[in-house]
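Workshop exercise sheet. Pairs work together: one partner reads the sequence aloud, the other fills in the structure field after running the prediction. Swap roles for the next sheet.
Pair: D.N. / O.F.
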Amino acid sequence: MRRALKIGFAYTGVVVGAGFSTGQEILQFFTNNGTMSIFAILLSGLLVLFTGKWTADVGFDIKAESHVDSLLSMFGNIFGRIVDVVLAFFLYGVAVIMFAGAGFTFYESFGVAPWVGSLILIIAVYITLNLDFNRIVLALGAITPYLLAIVVIIAFINFMSPAVPFSEADQYAEPEATPLGPWWWDAITYSGFTIAVAFSFLTMMGSRSDSRKVAGWGGIIGSVVIILLMFLINNGLLARMNEVNDVELPMLLLADEIHPVLGLLLSIAMLLVIYNTAVGMLYPFLNRFSRPGSRRYKIMLPVSLILGYILSFAGFADLVGTVYPVMGYVGLLLGIAMFIKWLRLVIGKKSPH
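Structure field:
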């Protein structure tokens, strides 16, 4: 169970990045659907649970060195290569969003210029990505319990004393601000985005697990924590539906209104999970094109960080609204492929042969 928890917390750490921890991601995909956001999270959560478990299982089964092995196993040689290139592109895109998110968080929380905040994150990521894989996994998982505790406190207090009663949330919701339209399609696409973000790193963690059981339980634990965080953040935002669409970092608004110390603790948590996701995206991206520790890796790492730093000035909320929905479609492809693989496995077990 301890090994499964290690995988689950690291998986959560990869997924829960800038958009998630600040509330911007949940606001755009769920909360702006008003009371229907509860059903959207239920639907999305079920899909996340399935894909999280099976991504780790597939990684263990084929002993994947990178996400390429899993993709070729599911899609075949030609289409698998195409999905591989697209996924690698979006891994890098999410890392850039983390750099932008760090700049905004440092500015909103501590008054530090955004370009300085982004630079601090990039230096931390550079140092971490020169460590071995096991240490990287430990670093990713360490922050998850802390974030969960802070979010539980913020969501519970806002839920108990809401500025907007649950029955009136729809009056302030802005469904037209959601990325794709109907609540159910936002939910499905978000689950696709989640698996696209986690697929590469979770595949590698699964392949390094001691057993298939440990890998699968790691995927389940991580998925359950992610679903719990989705519910908590969404309910907290619904309680302040009259204000959250006017700020870049809605969760920070909720925390500051309770107490400045809680806002400070959340700011620290946000920066740590932003760091987690930046590491979790860049490592498989670099691992796709080079072997960790090799000369090519040591050249690609600083080059990708410098280019990402420049691209991060496009703006945090705009990047979330543009990159995440498209990445959701990539994740849906992965989810469908894993479902087909699961069906084949079930049929194979029932077959007398």
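Discussion prompt: The mean pLDDT is 85. What would you look at next?
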